[in-house]
Amino acid sequence: MKSHSSIGRRVPRVDGLQLVTGGALYTADVALPRMLHGRILRSPHAHARVLCVDAERAKRVRGVMAVITGKDTAGRLFGIFPDERAVAVDRVRYIGEAVAAVAALDDDIAEEALSLISVEYEPLPAVFDPSEAMRLGAPLVHEGLAPIHIKEGGESKLASNVSFVNEFHVGDVERAFAEADHVREDTFTTSAQCHCALEPHGAVADFDAGGKLTLWSSTQGPFLLARDLAFTLDMSPSDIRIIKPRVGGAFGGKREMMASDFCAALLSRRAHRPVKIIYTREEEFMATRARHPMTLQVKTGVRRDGTLVAQEMTIIADGGAYSSRGPVILKYAGGQLGSLYRVPNIKFAGYHVYTNNPVSGSFRGFGMLQARFAIESQMDLLAEDLGIDPAEIRLKNAVRAGEVTSGGRRVTSCGLSECIEKVVEASGWRDRRVNLPPNHGLGIACNDYVSSGARSQGFIDSSAAYVRLQDDGTVVLFVGAADIGQGSDTTLCQIAAEELGVPVASIRIVSADTELAPRDMGTYASRITFVAGNAVKLAAADARRQLFQVAADCLEARPEDLEARDGRVFVKGSPDRGLSFQEAAVYVMKERGVHVQGRGGFAAKVEDGDAVLSVPPPYSFGAQVAEVEVDTETGQVKVRRFVAAHDCGFAINPMGLEGQVEGSVVCGMGHALVENRLLDEGRVLNPSLLDYKIPTSLEAPYVAASAIETKDPEGPFGAKGVSEGAQVPVAPAIANAIYDAIGVRINDLPITPEKILKALHRSPKD
Amino acid sequence: MRPFEHVDATSVSDAIALLKAEPDGTIIAGGTDLLDLMKDGLASPRVLINVKTIDGLDRIEADAAGHLIIGPITTLARLAEDARVRQDFLLLSEAISVTASPQLRNMATVAGNVCQRPRCWYYRGTFDCFLKGGNSCLAVGGRSRDSGIFGAAECAAVNPSDLAPALLALGASVVIENAKRRREVPLESFFTAPQKDRPGFTVLGRDEMIVEVKVPKQPVGSRGIYLKAMERKTWSFAQASAAIQLSRAEARVTDVRIILGGVAPVPWRASAAEDVLRGKVPTGELIERVAATATDGAHPLGQNGYKVKLAKALVKRGLAMLVDNSRS
């Protein structure tokens, strides 16, 4: 088998030098002549009618060039579940919702002008707890939303404020529970984790005289952003060009159009000048998105030998004031039933509930993470009930390649068992679990994840790429895919380089610019390596074919006898009969006038309609072991080590995989132990990185990550996604390790010293 | 934010004169707390009186009696690294090493740290907090995870300083000047719990300035320790902390000061616990009793009961470490 030159290698990032020298351009670095600075006025009320917005005084402030309020907008509801306006018109539903915006010569003037806008509100009753919101008679977050039938404890009842219901079942769980040797039911809750990307949301908008808009935005999906902007601004998407500069982290938080995008654009149209809006850290916490807090009930039936026979899950998700991606997130959470372990009978009920809290949305793990926290925690509880090792019960039930899951997933490749075996071996699980010092513990958890998305806004998941050969033998790769810090530009360059037979250094990438690059759905669902990677591979193969067609004449050979490798085109078997890429490029262009321009497109296959979750294969798998030490006097948890193995199909760049796993472990550890956006009647109590704590390098454990390579038949060079999945097992692995260490099980994230001390000191009478 | 003027003071008397002349003036040195207060609308001075331009305010020296004299604008970083401090007042270095972040320690000053305002989120955020004229303390029936377990009668905010408990454990005092007089106030009576008729967090008058912090010489063999429980290892205020200074003759404890941080509106002296220990030989069993007594009189709110356990654990651990250390 031929070895690879550019893939499967630890290639430094193509944008690395710029990033580490401070030369990289981020949205906040974009500075245009005559540019104005915009600020957004936000609702101080969790729920209120907007009676009147008077901006006259603000408009008269010297240096203020434009002011917009809801009345100046088309007032259109946008989103994949359209229920939100870019700027509120007659009603605000959470503290932080945009009600007006100002563009001025500088930030201070804009800030002063904001304070002069007077808004007359009529406060309305608000509701902050999802279970209270569901009670009939609770204040309606969206007026006119009719009560809906939900199931509670086997009974059907009416509930208010439920914006979306997802219920399904496969097989017969009731019968399976009745026949199971052991059944247990547990309830879990998860917290509102915030993305905390170091780069805040922001945009720079520039309308030209012809009414065409260019917008630089810190976004995960320029093409979908253009659609939302066009719709809300009432213009054609083709009149909008979105450019994504470098992005300083997104983690799901930059998938949707933000008020910053919309207001910068509309202010620019009004002022006839470019407008920049960059969010403050406080706005990040109160007016963007956060991970859905969920209450998850899981009931599972097992046979004595640990074979899972039935699993039922009910989820109530706090969606906050608007739907965002919430209903899809809930659906993906339900899709975790039977996806990782074979469970023939499954049943799901998920309820997405409106409250007057800030909006919940996409976040690395996308609902699958919350579901997996519950299921993986319960797997350990079941294992203990049955006296089976936690790793063994997982191995016993692990899905395998070639199976179709009870949820209808076609498992094209699966290294789950190998991942479990790998982390068991690498963590010394069998010996160390019994020999660890007191208050030290090991915990295991697993995950699966998608490598592409379901339909979004009606579009099948797809990507495209162009490859252009330059006359110096170098290559320009054009892709719509957005590198948001995860390194996809590098991975895609590696794929193109490998397919073309040139070094990675010969490739320049133009990505995520809606005018220059072909369309792409955006960065989510861990889809870029698989979907965009396949498109890039096809485009590079097309370019190579075109090159061979012409170069064959020069080499007096047939095109099919040529090979390209390490920057040379040569006749197979005779490396001396060849040309460098530069020579070949000069020949095709100069002598023949041929332009080599490869094109490739790839669409994820649409699965049968009866699949529970119509996300096509491939699926990635993983297992992690956490090692923790608990201080039983202070309740503090130290995460000492993480051992992770992830089936990514094939690691295009092992360094990229390690980076993803390390980042996931730290972010997941924050979620498990400390991160929690706290609210008091819908107002964020801790809207700063001082009060909302994320782990620092001092807390980061040693992470040993390895790739399990199963070479998926549909992936580019066998690759699947790996990025988001790596965060999924982190919290349950830590929770399981804490239990192993001190015998205390916390089902409620984050697992704070407060909860540990309370549980440890719980007297029998409590 | 209100526009302000920034004036360089040339001497202490100049600074005090400026303070007196400008009722809306305030002193700025490190600015690490003040600027945040101004941005959040919690302070809106018209004049900032810069005292970094005054010579000698950042001195660290010993007087004839061997007491440590610290200039008010000495940065935390410099104080922690000072050789004399590391030799005789290690407790201060220990407390500073877990304060804020290196960047903040390079900017923040001793007097500024001692005078910093509470971090309670109801105070810092846009809430109708008692300290800002609200009817009652919102933390009492609300999110009280970070609130005090002692003395939370009208306001449950805690004094957030790490340095203050350490200074108190060493018996420090502050020297305060105004236009008319100079007075020395023991730190123990410097801090005040905010009350309806008396807002503010210290006895410092608005026309007064701290001109030095004085730490008395400690008995030979006296040792201190600072332990702090926090949500993460850096850039985090104390969930609870314990500053302990222990002096012994032979095996017996001749003197001990136990000050708890992060649990009360002022650095909280656990006098009853000190009494249990004073004059005794500290055995493991006695240390348990001291720790159990350290939180006598605590009244936890709905969500901060864990602070009682934390404070006890820190006192127990700190004493055990001090006793262990001096044995070796």
Question: Overview of this structure, please?
Answer:
The complex is a heterodimer of chains A (766) and B (328). In chain A, helix 10 (368-386) packs parallel to helix 18, helix 15 crosses helix 16 (581-591) and helix 17 (654-673) crosses helix 18 (730-742). Chain A is α+β, with helices and mostly antiparallel strands and 766 residues long. In chain A, a hairpin with a 5-residue loop joins strand 21 and strand 22 (475-479). Chain A folds into 4 domains: 16-23 and 462-603, Aldehyde oxidase/xanthine dehydrogenase, molybdopterin binding domain (Aldehyde Oxidoreductase, domain 4, 2-Layer Sandwich); 31-124 and 198-250 and 254-287, Alpha-Beta Complex (Aldehyde Oxidoreductase, domain 3); 126-194 and 289-397, Aldehyde oxidase/xanthine dehydrogenase, molybdopterin binding domain (Aldehyde Oxidoreductase, domain 4), CATH 3.30.365.10; 411-443 and 615-766, Aldehyde Oxidoreductase, domain 4, CATH 3.30.365. Chain A starts with 15 loop residues before the first helix and ends in a 6-residue tail after the last helix. Helices cover 27% and strands 26% of the residues of chain A. With 328 residues, chain B is α+β, with helices and mostly antiparallel strands. Helices cover 31% and strands 20% of the residues of chain B. Chain B has helices spanning 12-21, 34-39, 76-81, 83-88, 90-97, 102-107, 110-114, 121-124, 138-141, 163-169, 271-277, 284-294, 306-327, and strands at residues 5-8, 25-28, 47-50, 60-62, 68-70, 173-177, 182-186, 209-215, 223-229, 240-249, 252-261, 268-269. In chain B, the strands form 3 sheets. A 5-stranded antiparallel beta sheet of chain B has the order 4-5-8-6-7. The model of chain B has no long low-confidence stretch (mean pLDDT 95). The chains are: A alpha+beta (766), B alpha+beta (328). At the A-B interface, strand 31 and helix 19 of A face helix 8 and helix 13 of B.
